[in-house]
Amino acid sequence: MDWRAEVLDQLDFYWTMWRPGLDGLTDEEYFWEPVADCWSLRQVDDGWAMDFSYPEPVPPPFTTIAWRLSHISGHVFAMRANNHFGDASYRMDNHDYPGTASAALAYLDEQKALWRNGIDALDVEGWEKPVGPAEGPFADRSYVALALHLNRELFHHGAEVSLLRDLYRASAGRSLA
Protein backbone atom coordinates (compact mmCIF):
# COMPACT_ATOMS: atom_id res chain seq x y z
CA MET A 1 0.00 0.00 0.00
CA ASP A 2 1.19 3.53 -0.78
CA TRP A 3 0.55 5.10 2.64
CA ARG A 4 2.01 8.43 1.56
CA ALA A 5 -0.50 8.82 -1.28
CA GLU A 6 -3.45 7.64 0.81
CA VAL A 7 -2.75 9.88 3.81
CA LEU A 8 -1.93 12.95 1.71
CA ASP A 9 -5.02 12.42 -0.44
CA GLN A 10 -7.16 12.26 2.70
CA LEU A 11 -5.59 15.44 4.09
CA ASP A 12 -5.82 17.34 0.80
CA PHE A 13 -9.41 16.27 0.12
CA TYR A 14 -10.62 17.53 3.51
CA TRP A 15 -8.53 20.70 3.36
CA THR A 16 -9.88 21.76 -0.05
CA MET A 17 -13.46 21.28 1.17
CA TRP A 18 -13.04 22.82 4.65
CA ARG A 19 -10.49 25.64 4.44
CA PRO A 20 -12.38 27.93 1.98
CA GLY A 21 -15.25 28.00 4.49
CA LEU A 22 -13.03 29.95 6.87
CA ASP A 23 -12.54 32.85 4.46
CA GLY A 24 -14.11 36.01 5.83
CA LEU A 25 -13.72 34.95 9.47
CA THR A 26 -14.00 38.10 11.58
CA ASP A 27 -12.29 38.92 14.85
CA GLU A 28 -15.72 38.99 16.48
CA GLU A 29 -16.40 35.40 15.36
CA TYR A 30 -12.87 34.33 16.24
CA PHE A 31 -13.26 35.45 19.86
CA TRP A 32 -17.01 34.80 20.23
CA GLU A 33 -17.84 33.14 23.56
CA PRO A 34 -21.24 31.54 23.03
CA VAL A 35 -21.47 30.30 26.64
CA ALA A 36 -20.05 31.36 29.99
CA ASP A 37 -16.54 30.36 31.03
CA CYS A 38 -15.20 29.51 27.57
CA TRP A 39 -11.58 28.76 27.03
CA SER A 40 -10.14 31.12 24.44
CA LEU A 41 -7.02 33.14 23.74
CA ARG A 42 -6.18 35.89 26.21
CA GLN A 43 -3.85 38.82 25.77
CA VAL A 44 -0.83 38.55 28.05
CA ASP A 45 1.92 41.14 28.02
CA ASP A 46 2.67 41.72 24.31
CA GLY A 47 1.20 38.46 23.03
CA TRP A 48 -1.59 35.91 23.21
CA ALA A 49 -1.88 32.74 25.28
CA MET A 50 -4.37 29.86 25.29
CA ASP A 51 -6.50 29.07 28.29
CA PHE A 52 -5.36 25.65 29.40
CA SER A 53 -4.84 23.49 32.45
CA TYR A 54 -3.36 20.08 33.01
CA PRO A 55 -4.94 17.85 33.84
CA GLU A 56 -7.87 19.08 31.83
CA PRO A 57 -11.07 19.61 33.84
CA VAL A 58 -13.86 17.04 33.43
CA PRO A 59 -15.85 17.97 31.51
CA PRO A 60 -13.50 20.28 29.63
CA PRO A 61 -14.63 23.89 29.11
CA PHE A 62 -16.29 24.93 25.88
CA THR A 63 -13.72 26.46 23.53
CA THR A 64 -13.92 29.35 21.08
CA ILE A 65 -12.98 29.38 17.41
CA ALA A 66 -9.78 31.16 18.45
CA TRP A 67 -8.89 28.33 20.82
CA ARG A 68 -9.78 25.60 18.33
CA LEU A 69 -7.91 27.16 15.39
CA SER A 70 -4.89 27.72 17.63
CA HIS A 71 -5.05 24.09 18.67
CA ILE A 72 -5.16 22.92 15.04
CA SER A 73 -2.45 25.25 13.78
CA GLY A 74 -0.24 25.13 16.87
CA HIS A 75 -0.60 21.78 18.63
CA VAL A 76 -1.59 19.67 15.66
CA PHE A 77 0.53 21.09 12.83
CA ALA A 78 3.22 23.50 14.12
CA MET A 79 4.40 21.38 17.03
CA ARG A 80 4.65 18.28 14.86
CA ALA A 81 6.25 20.02 11.87
CA ASN A 82 8.77 21.67 14.19
CA ASN A 83 9.50 18.56 16.26
CA HIS A 84 9.83 16.18 13.31
CA PHE A 85 11.08 18.37 10.46
CA GLY A 86 12.42 21.50 12.19
CA ASP A 87 14.59 22.47 15.14
CA ALA A 88 12.29 21.01 17.86
CA SER A 89 12.01 24.37 19.64
CA TYR A 90 8.20 24.56 19.75
CA ARG A 91 6.71 24.59 23.25
CA MET A 92 2.99 24.70 23.99
CA ASP A 93 3.54 26.67 27.19
CA ASN A 94 5.69 29.35 25.57
CA HIS A 95 3.96 30.19 22.34
CA ASP A 96 2.39 33.42 21.08
CA TYR A 97 -0.91 32.54 19.40
CA PRO A 98 -2.54 34.67 16.65
CA GLY A 99 -4.52 37.57 18.11
CA THR A 100 -6.66 38.23 15.02
CA ALA A 101 -8.73 36.06 12.71
CA SER A 102 -6.67 36.99 9.66
CA ALA A 103 -3.40 36.21 11.46
CA ALA A 104 -4.88 32.89 12.63
CA LEU A 105 -5.81 31.85 9.10
CA ALA A 106 -2.39 32.81 7.75
CA TYR A 107 -0.72 30.85 10.57
CA LEU A 108 -3.01 27.87 9.97
CA ASP A 109 -2.14 27.82 6.25
CA GLU A 110 1.58 28.18 6.98
CA GLN A 111 1.73 25.42 9.59
CA LYS A 112 -0.41 23.01 7.60
CA ALA A 113 1.93 23.54 4.62
CA LEU A 114 5.01 22.87 6.79
CA TRP A 115 3.51 19.65 8.14
CA ARG A 116 2.30 18.51 4.72
CA ASN A 117 5.67 19.26 3.10
CA GLY A 118 7.44 17.32 5.86
CA ILE A 119 5.38 14.17 5.50
CA ASP A 120 5.34 14.49 1.71
CA ALA A 121 9.15 14.27 1.74
CA LEU A 122 9.18 10.97 3.68
CA ASP A 123 10.17 7.91 1.69
CA VAL A 124 8.57 4.48 2.15
CA GLU A 125 10.85 3.63 5.07
CA GLY A 126 10.21 7.05 6.62
CA TRP A 127 6.47 6.40 6.76
CA GLU A 128 7.07 3.12 8.57
CA LYS A 129 9.72 4.20 11.07
CA PRO A 130 8.88 5.11 14.69
CA VAL A 131 8.19 8.79 15.37
CA GLY A 132 10.49 8.82 18.40
CA PRO A 133 10.52 10.64 21.74
CA ALA A 134 8.82 13.80 20.44
CA GLU A 135 5.54 11.89 20.68
CA GLY A 136 6.01 10.76 24.28
CA PRO A 137 4.19 7.50 25.03
CA PHE A 138 3.53 7.05 21.31
CA ALA A 139 7.24 7.08 20.39
CA ASP A 140 7.06 3.57 18.91
CA ARG A 141 4.18 4.42 16.58
CA SER A 142 4.90 5.00 12.88
CA TYR A 143 4.68 8.20 10.87
CA VAL A 144 1.66 6.63 9.18
CA ALA A 145 -0.06 6.43 12.57
CA LEU A 146 0.93 10.00 13.46
CA ALA A 147 -0.23 11.44 10.13
CA LEU A 148 -3.55 9.60 10.39
CA HIS A 149 -3.97 10.91 13.94
CA LEU A 150 -3.29 14.49 12.85
CA ASN A 151 -5.77 14.11 9.98
CA ARG A 152 -8.33 12.90 12.53
CA GLU A 153 -7.60 15.92 14.75
CA LEU A 154 -8.05 18.29 11.80
CA PHE A 155 -11.35 16.67 10.79
CA HIS A 156 -12.66 16.68 14.35
CA HIS A 157 -11.75 20.23 15.30
CA GLY A 158 -12.33 21.58 11.81
CA ALA A 159 -15.94 20.39 11.96
CA GLU A 160 -16.30 22.07 15.35
CA VAL A 161 -15.03 25.37 13.94
CA SER A 162 -17.45 25.14 11.03
CA LEU A 163 -20.35 24.44 13.39
CA LEU A 164 -19.37 27.42 15.56
CA ARG A 165 -19.40 29.64 12.47
CA ASP A 166 -22.91 28.37 11.67
CA LEU A 167 -24.06 29.06 15.25
CA TYR A 168 -22.51 32.52 15.20
CA ARG A 169 -24.40 33.42 12.04
CA ALA A 170 -27.67 31.89 13.27
CA SER A 171 -27.47 33.66 16.64
CA ALA A 172 -26.20 36.97 15.20
CA GLY A 173 -23.27 36.66 17.63
CA ARG A 174 -25.41 36.60 20.77
CA SER A 175 -24.55 34.38 23.72
CA LEU A 176 -26.37 31.04 23.71
CA ALA A 177 -26.47 30.85 27.51
From TrEMBL:
Protein name per Swiss-Prot or TrEMBL: DinB family protein
Record-linked SUPFAM superfamilies: DinB/YfiT-like putative metalloenzymes (SSF109854)
DinB-like domain segment(s): 10-160
InterPro entries found in the cross-reference section: DinB-like, DinB/YfiT-like
Organism: Saccharopolyspora elongata
Pfam families hit by this protein: DinB_2
